[in-house]
Specification:
Elements: H1 2-9, E1 33-36, E2 40-46, E3 51-60, E4 66-75
Antiparallel strand pairs: 1-2, 2-3, 3-4
Length: 76
Amino acid sequence: VNDLKSDLMSHPELIPYEGTMGGTMRFPRAASIILLPGGYAHARFEDGHMSGECIFSFDVKPGGVIGWKRIAARLD
């Protein structure tokens, strides 16, 4: 669980929105990521001014490489 959350946090390029007012969109903390059954994750993101959420699917490939696919995203 911690490896999955840490890996997603290292991929802010999966967030489809640009930061505003000089901010950079990111997943702020592991607690903002919820792993769901069936290989899905819900993650909150923010840039310090705006926030939103994404749904991802993921799979763990041989060697422990984690692949992410964004399914949906929205700003609050």
